[in-house]
Every structure is written in C-alpha cells, then in structure tokens.
C-alpha cells in the first residue's frame, strides 16, 4: 500500500458526477474498497486527512483503497482525474467507536492488576495477549474471557521467567550449594552431588511441591500440537550420590608374651 496519488484540498471541488459511496468504519479496523475504473494518474481530495478522521492508501497491484480510521467523525474522500479535475469517485466516511470498547473497559477493570498482559481490539474481537508470571492468573483470565463468549479470546502464555523464578525458589529451599536447579521446557532438572540417597530423595520431593499446574494450550485441545506427558511429574533428578568414605581400619591388638623355659 502506498499513497500513489496527489492530495489537494476540496475548497473549489466540483460536485461529483456519480453516486456517492457511504461507508461506516469502526475504530481499530481497516477497510478495503475497490477503485472504479479511472485514468491514471489521479489525485485525491476531501477533508478526511485535514480533519484527522481517516487515512487512505492506494494499492496499484490490486486497485484497492485501504481506509484506516483515526478518530470518530464524518468526512469526505474523493478521487479526481489529474488533468481535468473531474471527480470520478466520492466516499462519505462515518467513523464510529466499536461496541467492543465497552468490553475492553470491563475486562480491564477485571484483569487490570495482572502484570504482563494487554487487552486490545483486533479483527473485530477483543484479544487478551501477553505473558504472565503466576500460573494461577491463567484461571482468572480464562474465566473472565469466557464471560464474553465469541467477543473475546485469550493468547496469554506463561512467561519463561516464571519457570526460572520457580527454579530459584526450589534451589533456595533445597539449601545445598552442591545441587543446581534448572528450568528447561516446562521441566525442572536437578543436578549436582548429594551426600546420601536420603538427601537426593528430599531434593526431588521439594522440587515436586513447587511444580505449577499444567496449562493446556488451545492447539493441544484441537490436536494440532501434542505435548509429551512429563515424566516423574516434570522433575528430572540427575543428582549423584557421593560415595561413602571407606570404613576406618579395624583395631590392632598387640600381644606381648613373655615365657620362661624351665630345665630340670
């Protein structure tokens, strides 16, 4: 898309010799309109740009005008022959706010305290997007979005930073500088050396208490993506046990025997 026509004011513009096109545009949504057969090059006019209500870009490849609404209001956009100034097309534009604006405001009041998300209107639908740190916030987002039916949907995912933070909590609770905890692909890997089997088992139990609820994506529900079932509840225990020290040597008993030889 590019503005391949000249722009001029319509203070002295002549009346169009063809019916006007009345278009109702919604803020946040672009609209494409086919351009009638006109000689090129042509120029544009009207007061849409001057009033800041809408902008128009022309695509020569598909002979289409793309209108982008900027604010509420009424304006006129025209196309005229370059040489004669004859108006060959006129568009009366009315830009309105979307009915979804009320939905956005309601969702912002319900979800505004959750960090990492944004709520916007895209393709005539309210979209909640972003990454969250707390898995429990996903349930809240899901319940709120579900109240608005087909008017809203969620693209929110769990941030990789959340997994990293959980790994830090696990390492702090294990409290062993020789044991490392890493988060990889929604799994937690325990590595290092434990002094005993009991300590190794204890580290795994602590890690499992921190495992967050599994969030199922829509693509998984639809069968597009298949996630392998996490082994061992998502905790991979690679901790080795330090060999026990060899037992101390046994006690040495020294016997001193004195004997006397008797002769007759």
Tell me about this structure:
The chain has helices at 48-51, 100-111, 136-146, 160-174, 197-209, 218-221; strands at 6-7, 21-26, 31-34, 42-46, 54-59, 64-69, 73-81, 87-96, 117-121, 126-132, 152-154, 157-158, 179-184, 187-194, 235-241. The chain is an alpha/beta fold. Strands 1-4-7-8-2 form a five-stranded mixed beta sheet. Strands 9, 10, 11 and 12 form a four-stranded mixed beta sheet that branches. It has a three-stranded antiparallel beta sheet with strand order 3-6-5. The longest helix is centred in the middle third of the chain and has 15 residues, at 160-174. It is rod-shaped and about 160 Å long. The termini are far apart. The relative contact order is 0.10. The model is unreliable at 6-16 (pLDDT under 50).
